[in-house]
Design brief:
- The complex is a heterodimer.
- By secondary structure, chain A is an alpha/beta fold.
- Chain A is built from 13 helices and seven strands.
- Helices cover 46% and strands 9% of the residues of chain A.
- In chain A, the strands form two sheets. A five-stranded parallel beta sheet of chain A has the order 1-2-3-7-6, with helices on both faces. In chain A, strands 4-5 form a two-stranded antiparallel ribbon.
- In chain A, α1 packs across α2, α2 runs parallel beside α3 and α4 packs across α11.
- The longest helix of chain A is centred in the first third of the chain and has 26 residues.
- The model of chain A has no long low-confidence stretch (mean pLDDT 97).
- By secondary structure, chain B is of the alpha/beta class.
- In chain B, β2, α2 and β3 form a beta-alpha-beta unit.
- The model of chain B has no long low-confidence stretch (mean pLDDT 97).
- The chains are: A alpha/beta, B alpha/beta.
- The interface between A and B is large, with 42 and 46 residues.
C-alpha cells in the first residue's frame, strides 16, 4: 500500500469519494455495520459538542477553545483502530480522540474553563495530557515508543500534530529518534491546511508531508483524512507495521479545518468564502452518512432527533463542569513537586496571611 | 547515610560512574543515554563501561538532538522508566530548554500528579579547562528559576555519588550539574557501597566566626584556598557548600549569617540575576538585623566567557575571593 500510494508522486490514499461511493473496494477495511454506525454517531456527537463548545465560549462561559469542525473522521478512525493499551499523545485539537480514549466531555470542558483537572483524563488509560507547545509532544511519543519496546509491551503510540507542527524541529527529531529505535509509533499529522492563518503552501516547499518519511527511512502515506474508511485502513496498516517491530509510520491525514484555529481568530481574514464552500463538499460526516444510508445502515430521518438528544447530553455535562467547585489555593502549590519544598510552603502560608488580612478589611 | 566501611579513592568522574553503576544494577527501570554515552562512555568517560555491563538497551548512544534526548525522556518516564540523560556540555542544553521548561518541569502539575517525572538531566558545566566556545558557562540560575525542577551541584566525589543516587531516586526531575574543572582534580576516599545524601541540604565545610563564605561546584576549592590566605590575617571564615541551587537550604545559611554577620557569595555564573542575588534576598529577609556589612557577591562578569586566551580574566581566583573577604571585613 505504501508503494502503491507513493507520496513521492503525491498520491493520496482514498477509499470513498465525496458522494459516499467506495472507489477502492480492495482497500475497504473490515468493520461491521454496527461498529460503523457507532463511529458515525460518535462523530456526530463530537461535532455537536464541538459546535456547542464554540457557542459556550461566545457566551463567555468558557475560555479559548480550538474547534474540530470538519476533522472528525480522523478521530472516528482512531476510535476504531486504537486499542485500550495503545497510547494517545494529543496536541490540543483532539476532541473525538479524547472521547474515544475514555475522557469525558465534562473533563474537556473543565480544561477549557481553566482547570488542569480537565486534562488528567483520569478514566482514560494510556493517554498524555493536552500539549500546547507545537510538536513538542512528538518527542514524548518517541520516548513512549522506546519504553514500550524496552518493557516488551504490545502497545502502539498514536501521536498527533497539525500541519504547522511539521515545521518544528521537534517533529523531525522525534521521528528520527523513533525510526532509529524502531519504536512502535504512528506519527499522525492532521493537515487541516492552516496553521492559524498561515496556509499549508507557506509552511513548506515539500509536495506533501507524508513524503518527509523518506528522509527518516520509514514509510509515509498521504491519506484523505475526511474519508473514514481510508483513515481506518491506513491506521490499521500503520499499527500492524509498528507492532511488528518495523518501527514508526508517518500518516498525513488531509483534512480541512472548517472552523477557526481557536475561538480567538477570524478565518474570514485569511481565506475566501469560495474556498470554504468548495471544501465543505469534502465534509467527513456528509460522506460517511451518504455511505451508511446507501447501505441501509442508517436512517437519516433520525438525525434531527439524535442531535437534539446529544445537545441535551452535552449541556448536561457542560452544566456539571460549570458547577465544578472553585479552584483552591492549595492546588496551585501542591502539584509543583511530589513533596512541597519548605520555601514553597512558606509562600503559600504568607499568601494565606494576606488573604486573612484582606478578609478582615471587609 | 554512610555505606559500608569499604572505601575507594575516586575522582568525581569515577564517583558518578559508580553511582550510575549501583543504580543501574538495582533498578531495571533506569536507562542512561545521550550523545556518545554508550560505546565511548561519554566525552568525559563518565559512563565508561556501563553499556558493556548493562547492555545497549539500557545505556546507549542517542542520535544527536538535545531536545529529543530530553523530550523522549518525558515519554519514557510517563510509562514508568527512570531516564538519566546526559547533555554533552552546558552550552548545548539550550535546544532542550523548551522540553525542560514546558514538559519536564510541568508534567506532574499538568497531570495533577498522574505522571511523575523521575528524570535526571546531567551535564558538565563551568570554565577553566581551555575549552571551545559554549563549553565554559555556568548557568544554574536559568534552571533554578524554573518551577518544578530541582538543581544540584556537587563539589566533591563523595557528594557527587551520594547526591546523584538521591537524584536518580527522586520522583521530581533533577538538573544535575557537574563542575568539569574538578572532574579529575580532586581524589577522595568514597564508600564503595550505596549511600545517599539528601537534596536541598547545604553543608558547612568549615566552621568560622567572622564571615560566612558561600560557594558551590568548582568554586568551593577556590574558596578553601582563599580561607587559608584569610587565616593568616586572623579571619575566621565559615564555609558553606550550597550543594543544591533549588530548593535552597535557607536554614543553614541563615544560622551561619546570624553567627558571623558578614557574607561573601562566590559563583562562576554571571553576577546579575545570579544565584547570589537570590541568596542576598534570603539573607535580607531572615537575617537583616544581624548584618554588619552588605552581602558581597563575587560572580562571573556579565559577559560571554572569553575563549581560553582571555579566560584568566574571567575566572574567579582564590586571590579575588580573599580580596573580597578583606573588603567585607573592613566595611
Amino acid at each position: 500500500m505504501f508503494s502503491e500510494f507513493s507520496p513521492l508522486e503525491d498520491k493520496m490514499f482514498q477509499v470513498m469519494d465525496n458522494e459516499g461511493n467506495i472507489v477502492r473496494p480492495e482497500y475497504m477495511p473490515e468493520v461491521d455495520g454496527q461498529r460503523l454506525v457507532k463511529a458515525y454517531k460518535d462523530m456526530l456527537f463530537a461535532r455537536t459538542a464541538d459546535l456547542m463548545a464554540v457557542s459556550y465560549q461566545r457566551q463567555g462561559r468558557m475560555y479559548t477553545y480550538p474547534p474540530n469542525y470538519g476533522q472528525e473522521a480522523i478521530a472516528g478512525a482512531m476510535a476504531i483502530v486504537m486499542r485500550e493499551n495503545d497510547w494517545l499523545v494529543p496536541a490540543f485539537r483532539e476532541l473525538g480522540a479524547w472521547l474515544a480514549k475514555g475522557a469525558s466531555l465534562k473533563e474537556i470542558f473543565l480544561y477549557f474553563m481553566g482547570y488542569e483537572e480537565g486534562t488528567v483524563f483520569r478514566n482514560a488509560k494510556n493517554i498524555l495530557p493536552i500539549s500546547v507547545p507545537i510538536a513538542s509532544q512528538y518527542q514524548h511519543a518517541a520516548g513512549l515508543g522506546y519504553s514500550i519496546k524496552y518493557k516488551k509491551e504490545d502497545s502502539v503510540v498514536y501521536a498527533v500534530v497539525g500541519d504547522g507542527g511539521t515545521s518544528e524541529g521537534d517533529f523531525s527529531e522525534a521521528i528520527n529518534f523513533a525510526a532509529v529505535w524502531e519504536a512502535p509509533v504512528v506519527f499522525l499529522v492532521q493537515n487541516n491546511q492552516y496553521a492559524i492563518s498561515v496556509p499549508f503552501r507557506m509552511q513548506t516547499r515539500s509536495v506533501n508531508i507524508a513524503v518527509k518519511a523518506y528522509a527518516f527511512g520509514i514509510p509515509g502515506l498521504k491519506v484523505d483524512g475526511n474519508d473514514i474508511f481510508a483513515m481506518v485502513k491506513a491506521l490499521q496498516v500503520a499499527q500492524e507495521h509498528a507492532r511488528s517491530g518495523k518501527g514508526p509510520v508517518l500518516i498525513e491525514a488531509v483534512t480541512y479545518r472548517r472552523g477557526s484555529h481557536t475561538t480567538s481568530d477570524d478565518p474570514t481574514k485569511y481565506r475566501t468564502k469560495e474556498e470554504e464552500d468548495a471544501m465543505a463538499k469534502t465534509d467527513p460526516l456528509d460522506r460517511f452518512r451518504k455511505y451508511l444510508v446507501n447501505q441501509n445502515l442508517y436512517d437519516p430521518s433520525q438525525e434531527e432527533e439524535l442531535i437534539a438528544q446529544y445537545k441535551k447530553e452535552v449541556d448536561r455535562q457542560f452544566t456539571e463542569a460549570e458547577n465544578y467547585p472553585p479552584y483552591p489555593l492549595e492546588d496551585v502549590f501542591k502539584y509543583t513537586y511530589v513533596e512541597l519544598p519548605d520555601d514553597l510552603r512558606q509562600q503559600q502560608i504568607e499568601h494565606e496571611k494576606f488573604l486573612k488580612w484582606k478578609e478582615a478589611l471587609k | 547515610m554512610e555505606g559500608g566501611l569499604e572505601m575507594k579513592v575516586m575522582t568525581m568522574v569515577s564517583a558518578i560512574n559508580n553511582a550510575l553503576d549501583i543504580k543501574l544494577a538495582e533498578d531495571p527501570m533506569i536507562v542512561a543515554y545521550g550523545e556518545d554515552v554508550g560505546v565511548e562512555g561519554g566525552v568525559f568517560r563518565v559512563t565508561e563501561g556501563l553499556q558493556k555491563k548493562y547492555g545497549a538497551h539500557r545505556v546507549f548512544d542517542s542520535p544527536l538532538a538535545e531536545s529529543a534526548i530530553v523530550g523522549t525522556a518525558v515519554g519514557m518516564a510517563a510509562n514508568g522508566l527512570r531516564p538519566v540523560v546526559e547533555m554533552q556540555f552546558c552550552g548545548f542544553v539550550y535546544p532542550a530548554y523548551n522540553q525542560i521548561i514546558s514538559h519536564v518541569a510541568r508534567f506532574y502539575n499538568r497531570s495533577r500528579g498522574r505522571y511523575r517525572m523521575p528524570i535526571v538531566i546531567r551535564f558538565p558545566y563551568g570554565g577553566g579547562i581551555n575549552a571551545l566556545e559554549h563549553h565554559s558557562e555556568s548557568m544554574e540560575t536559568i534552571y533554578g528559576h524554573i518551577p518544578g525542577i530541582k538543581v544540584v551541584i556537587p563539589s566533591t566525589p563523595y557528594d557527587a555519588k551520594g547526591m546523584l543516587i538521591s537524584a536518580i531516586e527522586s520522583d521530581d526531575p533533577i538538573i544535575f550539574m557537574e563542575p568539569k574543572r574538578i572532574y579529575r582534580a580532586i581524589k577522595q576516599e568514597v564508600p564503595e557501597d550505596k549511600f545517599s545524601i539528601p537534596l536541598g541540604k547545604a553543608k558547612v565545610l568549615q566552621q568560622g566566626s567572622d564571615l560566612t563564605l558561600i560557594a558551590w561546584g568548582a568554586m568551593v576549592r577556590e574558596a578553601q584556598k582563599a580561607i587559608v590566605m584569610a587565616k593568616k590575617d586572623g579571619i575566621s571564615v565559615e564555609l558553606i557548600d550550597l550543594r543544591t541551587i533549588y530548593p535552597i537550604d535557607r536554614q543553614t545559611i541563615i544560622e551561619s549569617v546570624k553567627k558571623t554577620g558578614r557574607v561573601v557569595i562566590v559563583h562562576e555564573e554571571p553576577l546579575t540575576f545570579g544565584t547570589g542575588a537570590e541568596l542576598t534576598a534570603i539573607i535580607n529577609e531572615d537575617a537583616f538585623l544581624h548584618l554588619e556589612a552588605p552581602v558581597n557577591r563575587v560572580g562571573g562578569f556579565d559577559t560571554i566567557v572569553p575563549l581560553p586566551r582571555g579566560e584568566h580574566h574571567y575566572i574567579i581566583s582564590p586571590e579575588k575571593i580573599y580580596y573580597n573577604i578583606l573588603k567585607t571585613m573592613k566595611f
